[in-house]
Design a protein that fits this description.
- With 311 residues, the protein is of the alpha+beta class.
- The protein has helices at residues 24-40, 52-66, 70-73, 106-116, 122-149, 156-161, 228-233, 286-293, 296-300, 304-309, and strands at 4-5, 11-13, 42-46, 86-89, 92-101, 163-172, 182-187, 193-200, 204-208, 211-214, 221-226, 243-246, 253-262, 265-266, 284-285.
- A hairpin with a 2-residue loop joins strand 9 (204-208) and strand 10.
- The chain is globular, with a radius of gyration of 19 Å.
- The structure holds 2-oxoglutaric acid (AKG) and fe (ii) ion.
- This is Fe2OG dioxygenase domain-containing protein.
């Protein structure tokens, strides 16, 4: 594996007091968000609206969840690709994950909880619902800043209405002496945005200019990653970012990732196309793009979005 450089990923403080849309603090942070996404395809958001107590509770809840018997965990299935349980994969032996579809609604959370704990687990449902809702609020804030900074906020509302979320809960075990330290292979996310929270343990690495940069753990920090759908929507101004997980510790690592997808068409705003920025991607159906990624052609492509809908 390539060396990890000491470079830093941009950090943007989204916890500034009174930072409401329309204030000078908002405009200034919005500019930082746009710059970070255009330059790196990601940034570390400092966000204190998710109480530290809830970070700790989530850690405990993830331990409780992954300690369930294997036969219970595999009940987490979905007809959507990569929304269900994954574990004991020979090429990714350290990795185990589960997915909650629609985690910002009581129904979404409860259908997951009821599968895992048929006798109920109210505390799990309550905590995960409030956690997902708070992280989704962060996502909505970032998406608003992106739309505004390109002057296309008139498209925000319809985009928001077609957005749905997946919460992935992830556990990595440390490698044994004879094992590789790859936690999760290098990839680009296929959603619009993804918010990774390193609940316990570092390991997330971001690729920049061919080098791997470790995402350090800061208090109250969430990593915002641009996915392929955002790359398409922004007509390539923001590029999706390649990332991977490397396990360099002797302890278990727990993380969550909240993905935003669209149920509809990702429409490239005409305002983002001009002589200097000719159209790079045709508008596309996000769900069909996700299915294309499941085909051999999609999997093999360096940039599946380019192959699917590139001009
Ligand atoms: O666990 C992490 O830190 C990253 C997970 C990730 O990139 C993913 O699930 O797509
Ligand atoms: Fe990812």
């Amino acid at each position: 594996m390539g060396a990890v450089t000491p470079h830093k990923i941009p950090v943007v403080d989204l916890s500034i007091e009174n930072m409401k849309p329309g204030t000078s603090a908002w405009y200034s942070v919005r500019k930082d968000v746009q710059r970070a996404l255009e330059e790196c395809g990601c940034f570390v958001a400092v966000y204190d609206k998710v109480p530290l107590e809830l970070h700790k509770t989530m850690f405990a809840k993830l331990e409780e969840l992954f300690n369930l018997p294997h036969d219970t965990k595999i009940k987490n299935t979905s007809d959507k690709p990569h929304f269900g349980y994954y574990g004991q994969i020979s090429i990714l032996p350290l990795y185990e994950c589960m997915g909650i579809d629609n985690p910002i609604t009581k129904e979404g959370i409860e259908s997951f909880t009821n599968l895992m704990w048929p006798a109920g687990n109210e505390l799990f449902s309550e905590n995960v619902l409030s956690y997902s809702s708070m992280v989704a609020e962060l996502d909505q804030m970032v998406q608003r800043m992106i739309f505004e900074s390109y002057g296309v906020d008139k498209y925000l509302e319809p985009h928001k209405e077609s957005t749905y979320y997946l919460l992935r809960l992830i556990k990595y075990r440390p490698p044994e002496a004879n094992e590789n330290n790859l936690g999760f292979r290098a990839h680009n996310d296929k959603g619009f945005t993804a918010i990774v929270h390193q609940i316990y343990g570092e390991g997330l690495e971001i690729e920049k200019d061919g080098e791997w940069i470790l995402c350090e753990l800061l208090p109250n920090s969430f990593v915002i990653l641009a996915g392929d759908a955002l790359m398409g929507w922004s007509n390539g101004r923001i590029r999706s970012v390649k990332h991977r997980v490397t396990m360099n510790t002797k302890e278990m690592r727990f993380s969550t990732a909240l993905f935003a997808f669209s149920t509809g068409i990702i429409q490239i705003p005409e305002e983002l196309v001009d002589d200097q920025n000719p159209l790079r991607f045709k508008s596309f159906d996000h769900q069909k793009f996700l299915r294309f990624f499941e085909t051999e052609e999609g999997r093999k492509a360096d940039s599946p979005l380019q192959v699917y809908t590139g001009v």
